[in-house]
Amino acid sequence: MNTPTMVASLIFAVVLVLVIGWLIRLMMRGWRRRGQLQETLIGTLPAVPDMVGPPIVAATRGQYLGCTLAPKWNDRVVAGDLGYRTKAVLTRYPEGIMVQRSGARPIWIPQDAILAVRTERGIAGRAIPTRAHDGVLAIRWRLPSGTEIDTGFRADDRSEHTRWLEGDNT
Prior knowledge:
This protein folds into two domains: 1-41; 55-165, Roll (PH-domain like), CATH 2.30.29.30. It starts with a helix and ends with a helix. The radius of gyration is 21 Å and the shape is elongated. It has helices spanning 3-42, 161-166, and strands spanning 57-69, 86-93, 96-101, 107-110, 114-120, 122-123, 126-127, 136-142, 148-155. A hairpin with a 5-residue loop joins strand 8 (136-142) and strand 9. It contains two helices and nine strands; from the N terminus they run αβββββββββα. It is of the alpha+beta class.
């Protein structure tokens, strides 16, 4: 490779790296701005109670897929740490549903805020290819601010979703 070609290649590589860095910065800025706008809709999440009764539906291991603004299954909530996927354990008590997420704060969904527990094919940009619409367990609930959101959860063993549908006392 001759010197002018090498210099041109290096200049092109530097420009390409700068453009990619600029695009990543714009995406991060958009994510943060969207989170700030959603914070007014979301408000504060319900506090986790000190004491709860015995579980109605036993702990289910799986993956927390995030929350979306209802009824739009693809409008991810990015306020706080609600938009991050993580491993989680879902347990239902008479007082509500506990979502214990690894590396994030637990989410408490009070019983009186639960509107529906159902299965869906996808949520928050995550579509699960299955024959039936049972890939994601979606919990629709109303926040104290009045906003309705869907919380998505995918059990490690998808047959456990039926326990959640049978245990739906809403």
